[in-house]
C-alpha cells in the first residue's frame, strides 16, 4: 500500500485525492491589482479546501501554449506570499507548480509539501534543489517547450516515448537523492500532444501506473475536452469529470482540477464502489 509523506501530512493512496488549481498569474484574475489578486487567491484556496481538496497547487508561471516566460523575481513575488499565507491558514498539502530551483527551496521553507514541475526537474539546479527539500515531486512529460509545444506534436511511438522519458527523469531524480516512492508521474495532457495523443495516453494510464509510482492527471478544462465536445472553456466540467473517472479506473490517484467539489463527490462514489466486494 502506497503512503507518501508530504511534509507534515501523509496520504494513503488506496484512495483518490483531488488537487485544486490555484493560479496566481495576474491574467487569471479579472482585476490585475496585486493586493486584490492575493486576497482573491486565499479565498479561492479556502473554498477549495472546504470543498475537500487534499492539495492546493499554487502556480505563478503561465504554461499556456505560447505564453511569455515569467522572470524569477516575478514568480517568487506571486507564489511565495501565497504559500506562506496558506501554510498558516489551511490544513491541506500545498503543492508548488514551478520549475525554478529558487522557488522550490523557498516554498519548501515556507511550508510547501509537494513540488510539481511540468519540466520534470530539467532546469539547471532543479534536481539538487528538489532533493534538498526532501519533499515528494511530480514529474510531468512535455514535448517541446510551452512556447512551441503545440506547433506540430509528433511521436513515432507515443507511449514508449512518454514512459522512457519519465523513467529517465525518475532515474535522474533518484540519483539526486529523491526516494522512488516520493516520485509521482504525470503524462502531461496537452503538453506537446494532439487530441489523439491525449486520448491514447489517457486510455493507457494503466501502463504508466505499472511503472510503480502514483499517477497524477491534469486534464481539467483543457483544449482536448473542448475538441471532443466542441465546448468553450466554461462548458468543460462534465467532460473533464468523464476523463478523470476513466483514468481513476485505470489506476490514477491524484486529479488536478479547477472544479474541486464535483470531483470530490464523483471520486468518493468511484472509490466506495471500487472498495465494496
Ligand atoms: C494556462 C494554460 C495556464 C494551461 C495553465 C495551464 C498541468 C500542470 C498545468 C498538468 C501537472 C493547466 C495548465 N497543467 N501540472 N500544470 N500536470 N502536474 O491547464 O497537466 O492547468 S498548467
Structure report:
Catalyzes the condensation of para-aminobenzoate (pABA) with 6-hydroxymethyl-7,8-dihydropterin diphosphate (DHPt-PP) to form 7,8-dihydropteroate (H2Pte), the immediate precursor of folate derivatives. It comes from Maribrevibacterium harenarium. The chain is 44% helix and 16% strand. Strand 1 (3-6) and strand 2 form a beta hairpin. The protein is built from ten helices and ten strands. The strands form two sheets. Strands 8-7-6-5-4-3-10-9 form an eight-stranded parallel sheet. Strands 1-2 form a two-stranded antiparallel sheet. The protein has one domain (14-61, 72-275): Alpha-Beta Barrel (TIM Barrel). The model has no long low-confidence stretch (mean pLDDT 94). The chain has 277 residues and is an alpha/beta fold. Helix 1 (34-50) crosses helix 2 (72-89), helix 2 runs parallel beside helix 3 (101-109) and helix 3 packs parallel to helix 4 (126-133). It is globular, with a radius of gyration of 17 Å. Ligand 7PM binds at residues 21, 62-64, 97, 116, 118, 138, 140, 186, 188-189, 216, 218, 222, 256.
Key descriptive features of the protein:
277 residues, alpha/beta, TIM Barrel, 8-stranded parallel beta sheet, two-stranded antiparallel sheet, 10 strands, globular, binds ligand 7PM
CATH architecture tag? Alpha-Beta Barrel
Q: For this entry, what is the oligomeric state of its chains?
A: single chain
Proportion of beta-strand residues: 15-25%
Helix content: 40-55%
- What is the CA-atom radius of gyration, in angstroms? 17 Å
H and E string: EEEHEHEHEHEHEHHEHHEH
Outline: globular
Indicate the CATH topology: TIM Barrel
CATH level 4 superfamily: Dihydropteroate synthase-like
Placed side by side, the strands forming the largest sheet appear as 8-7-6-5-4-3-10-9
- Total beta strands: 10
* Largest β sheet strand count, sense and barrel closure: 8 strands, parallel
Our measurement of the CA-to-CA distance between the termini, rounded to an integer number of angstroms, reads 18 Å
CATH class categorisation: Alpha Beta
The chain-level structural class is: alpha/beta
> Roughly what is the average pLDDT, rounded to an integer?
94
Number of helices: 10
Count of structural domains = 1
In the predicted model, the low-confidence regions spanning at least 5 consecutive residues are: none
